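Dear colleague,

Following up on yesterday's call, I've attached the two folding results inline so they're easy to grep. Please treat them as preliminary; we haven't cross-checked anything against experimental data yet. The first protein's sequence and structure tokens come first.
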Amino acid sequence: MSDGPAEFAEGGSAAVALTPAIRRLRAAANLSHAEIARRIGYSPAHVSRAECDDAGLPSADLVRALDRGLGARGGTCQDF
């Protein structure tokens, strides 16, 4: 099974893992919602919603911005 766009759209394992990974990476970087939002050019509320399991999957643009802002290079906390 792949982690491609279809799996994200269908709520597959990659989508289920994304919001907690964003939360863990932000916490590991010791950044508040406001700090990372300022760094990536999004509102703190938008970043907060990206970490909520029931708020829906964050946009690909936001995920890329968070990836750059957190220096994750596409990885997760387990990769560091």
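Below is the second protein, in the same order (sequence, then structure):
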Amino acid sequence: METAPFTVERQIRFSHTDPAGIVYFPNYFDFCNGVMEDWYTNHLGIDYARLIFEQRRATPIVHAECDFYVPSKMGERLFFTLLLGKVGRSSIDIRIYGHAAGILRLEARIVTVYMDLDRQKSEVVPGAIRDLFNAYQNACAGWIPPARPGAAA
């Protein structure tokens, strides 16, 4: 497993922004989904495409929420850091922190469910994957998200 926590950098492009020149908020959910896919494939070593198309398993989003603190504009580069919250029987609570220059821009909480695509039913997170999740949580222990804007130091 690579260095934890998993963090990726994304450039804000024209296509991500609204007429005011800031990121149109639904695009953050697309960013977060991409971060989760990259985390599975590039960090955990679980090829996300193979998981879906060959193993017929998926982790669809069943809940998503996001708090926005600072707008992001075209040309800026944001870092997205993924942490795991509670891992349930079939649910996975994921936290994604968007930040730049040491300031938290957004904080997302996304819950996914491990499921069998052919049966269209949730199933228990397999032991080998659960072990990877537990190792990742342990490797991330002690990581503190960047400060929210205006938060006392």
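For the second protein, one point worth flagging: The domain at 6-139 is CATH 3.10.129.10 (Thiol Ester Dehydrase; Chain A).

Best wishes,
A.L.
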